[in-house]
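Morning run. Coffee first, then this:
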Amino acid sequence: MVSSGGPQHAILPSSKRKRRIEDNFNCGQEGASLKENQDKKKDSDQMDPSVESVDRISQLPDHVIHHILSHLRNVNDAVRTSILSKKWRALWHSFSILVFDERKFAARIGNEDNKEMMFREYVSISLCDRLVKNLYIQKLVVHITPHDLSDDTEYLNLWLNIANDRNIKELDLHVGIKSGKRFTLPSIVFSSKTLTGIRLSGCKLETCGNIMLPHLQKLYLHKLYLDESVIQNLISCCHSIEDFRIIKCSGLKHLHISNLIRLNRVEVHHCTQLKKVQIGAPNLDTFWFCGKRTFPCKVSLEGCDSLKRLTLGHPQVTRDFCENQISNFPLLEKLDLCISNDKIKYIIFSNPHLQKFSLKGCKKLRFVQVFAPNLVSFECKGETMPLVDFNPFCLTDAKLSFLPKQKVVGFGDKIWIMMKTFIGKFESEGFKLILYSSKNIIIYEDLCKVKLPPVPDLGCEIIKSPACIDDILFSLLRTLHPVTLSIISPLDSDFPKSVYEMIKDKDKDPICCIYNAPRNKCWRHFVKDVHFEDLNDMKFEDIEANEDKRTSNWYNWLKSEYTTLECRMTNLRLDWNPHHDMET
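And here it is:
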C-alpha cells in the first residue's frame, strides 16, 4: 500500500508545472521521438489495405503482446511497436516497463530551475497514475542523482511501495552517493512475492530478518557496502537465484555460496576487500572473477562439476587455477585467462571438452601447452607471443594481437618469429589470414604467401569459416577506418572483387543503422569512396605525400615484397569523411 503523508503531498505540483512535466515526458517514454512515431504512422497508413486484413499479430491476447514488449532490447524499441495497429498503440500506454533517468530528464528540460524536484514529482505522478488505474509494473528502472538524502528517502520509499503494490517483477535502482551517505533499502524490497530480478547500485543494505523472495532469480549488486552477515543471509534465503553478480562492492571479505541448486552464473568484479571466495554449486555454468593483483584473493570452486565457462582476470587466482584447478572441470568449454603477473612463465593443463581458449595481458609468458582434442578457437593478446603447443592441433580460428611497450622497428622480431611458427601450423588451404596495424589491413588467402610487415604493433586473425570473414572485416572497418585494405590471393581468385563490391555498395543497405543514434553509425556512413588497384594490371598509384608515414611505409613494403611473387595483389584505397573521427 502507498503510505500516507510525507511525499504524497509533496508530489502534487501546480497544474501548470504538471502539464509542463507531462508534455516533456509522457509516462516513462524517455528517449522516444514523437516526430519519429508520427512519420512511421504516416508510412503505415499508406500501406496496402490488404496488409491489415491479414494482421494476425494484433489478434494476440493482451498478455502475450505485453510479454513480447518485455523482451525487446530497450524502451524505444517498444515505443516503435505503437505503429503496428491501434491495438498495439493502446497496449503501449499500459506497457509495464517504466524507465526514469534523472540525467536524461535534466538534459531535456534545459535550464529550468529546480530540476531535481521536477524529476521527483514527475516519477511520483507517473507511478501514482499506475496505482490509480490499477496497472501492474513488470519492470521499474530508476537512475537518480544525489540531492537531499532525507527528501530522496521519502520519495524512493514511496516509489518502491507503489511498485511493490503493483506486483513488480524487476527492480533496477541506481542511487547516487553524496558525501559518503547512501540510501538504505527498505525492508519491503526483501519481502516481495513477485520480484524475479533486483539490480542495485549505490544503496545500503541493512540486516533484515524477514527475507521472503521466493521467485528471485537475478541479483546484481553494484557499488554497495556489503556486510558479510547481510549478504550471507540474503543469499541463503533466496533459493531460486540463478544469476548472482557483485561489482565494485566494499566491506565484504569472505563470500561463501552453497546449497543453491539453481545457481548457474556468478560474477565478482573488483571487490578490493575480498580475501576469499568459496562456491559450491553443482549446476554452476559460468564463473567470472577479476580484480587487481595488488589485492590478493583465494578462489575455490570445489564441487562445481558442471562449469562450462570460466573467466579469470586476477593474476594470483589465474596462477592457482592453472596449477591446480583447471583440470578439475570436466565439462569446461570456454576458458579466458588474464596473465598480468610477471611470475607466470608457463601454462600446462589438459581438458577434454575445452573448445575456446583466450590469453590476455601476456608479458613474460614463454610457453603454453594444452592437451585438448576439441579446442577449435584461440586468442592471445599482450606484449609478447609465447610458444604455443596444442595437442592435437585442430584450430579453426585464432586471433593474435600485440602491442609492445617499446614501439620501435626491430623490437617485434621475436614476436614475428613466434607468430610465423604458430601460423605455419595451420593448413595452407581453406584458411584466411587478416593482419592489421593502425590504418592498414592485409588479407591473405594463401597462408604459404604470408610475410609479416615491419611494424611494432600487429593484430592477426586466422579464420576458416567464410561466414565469419564479413564479421571480422566489418569490425575492423568500424574500429580502424583503414586507409588501405590489401588482399594477397591466387591469380584466379574472385575474393578481392567481392570485397571491393561489398564496400562499394555501401549505400544499398539503408536499414543497417535504423536503431543507432547519429553518433553511433556503422562504417558505411563514413566511407566517401573506395578505389580498386590491381598490381598485376599495373594499376597501382603511389601513396600521396600527405598520408601519414606509417601508411606510406606499409604501402611501399607491400609493393616491394609482392611484385615478383606468383600471386595477385589487390589494393583497396578508402577515402573517409574528414569528420568521421568526431562522429563515431
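The radius of gyration is 29 Å. Good start to the day.
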